[in-house]
Design a protein that fits this description.
There is one protein chain. The chain is globular. It has a domain of 151 residues: Nucleotidyltransferase, domain 5, CATH 3.30.420. The chain is an alpha/beta fold and 304 residues long. Helix 2 crosses helix 11. Strands 1, 2, 3, 4, 5 and 6 form a six-stranded mixed sheet that branches. The longest helix has 24 residues. The two termini are 18 Å apart.
């Protein structure tokens, strides 16, 4: 395969279509009697990835672009409300395809993970916050990396050193990062059950004797910077260059995949748009891996 957008879209469509034929229960539920959608679920997944890859944060603008330039790939395209509604209902399918693509890469079995959280801003004014359906989930928080307050959520991400997403969660802005990580591991015990001696790299917020003891119970060794008043921790010489990887992954989500411009106004809408971007990065890594590209996380061949 060659690394261009058409080849990525074709490979993703074929993979998703084959998965849905083998496991039709993964598709969003719809009545047994009714009108069959003209846009298939495999086409919907492919369309969502191409939208995020090309940087369209407005569904209306994206569909106008697709009608003008992508008819050779999508003979039928729904109107914006219908496309948006179907994408929200397909969240579980997007999540399943993300995991299937991730496990189909050569880096899924890497024995080093990196963990961090990054803000997902959902509003900047009181007029936006007061009537928002996200109120109660989204909340005010502080991003130390950018020295700013924000109103919204946090994306907690565990990934490999190549940037491949392994596990993720969306929480309120003030949720404890350590609790979220432990919940992720408890929710999918099989992630570490077959990975004895897994190493996890985190920042200074992932601290605490009880926390590290619980990680050790999962067979995970934690590397993090030494906090003030602590003795020097092992692995300090390796930490700094490896730690930059997660910052780079977060910048890919924000700078190239427009994570903070996702424009979701409801919980379902935000979840769909965040998973859409995680799937997009996973698809790029999967396709680069299969086509033998030297840099797996590069989106350069696909974002134009």
């Amino acid at each position: 395969m060659t690394p261009d957008l058409d080849s990525l879209a074709t490979a993703l469509y074929v993979k998703t279509d084959d998965v849905l034929k083998a496991s039709p229960h993964l598709a969003p539920w719809r009545p047994a009697v009714g009108i069959t959608p003209k846009l298939t679920d495999a086409e919907l997944v492919t369309l969502a990835v191409m939208q995020a890859m090309l940087g369209f944060t407005s569904e209306a603008k994206w569909l106008r672009h697709a009608r003008a330039h992508l008819r050779h790939l999508f003979p039928y395209l729904p109107q914006q409300p219908g496309c948006n509604k179907r994408l929200r209902k397909a969240v579980e399918l997007l999540r399943r395809i993300t995991r299937l693509l991730a496990t189909d890469t050569s880096v899924w079995s890497d024995d080093v993970w990196i963990v961090d959280s990054t803000p997902v801003e959902c509003g900047r004014s009181r007029e936006t916050v007061k009537p928002s359906e996200l109120a109660g989930w989204a909340e005010y928080g502080y991003c130390a990396s950018h020295s700013r307050f924000f109103w919204g959520l946090c994306l907690h991400l565990v990934c490999t050193l190549q940037g491949l997403p392994v596990a993720f969660a969306l929480t309120g802005a003030r949720t404890d990062e350590r609790e979220t990580l432990l919940d992720l591991l408890d929710a999918e015990p099989e992630l570490v059950a077959t990975r004895p001696g897994q190493t996890l790299i985190g920042d200074r917020n992932y601290f605490g004797r009880d926390f590290e003891h619980q990680l050790a119970g999962h067979g995970i060794r934690l590397l993090r910077p030494t906090r003030k008043g602590e003795p020097e921790r092992p692995g300090a010489e390796l930490f700094k260059p490896l730690r930059q990887v997660i910052e780079s992954v977060n910048e890919t989500f924000k700078g190239q995949l427009d994570l903070e411009r996702q424009h979701g106004r409801t919980p379902a809408g935000v979840v769909a748009r965040v998973i859409q971007r995680i799937l997009t990065l996973t698809t790029a890594i999967w396709h680069n891996d299969r086509s033998g590209q030297p840099v797996l996380r590069s989106l350069t061949a696909y974002d134009h």
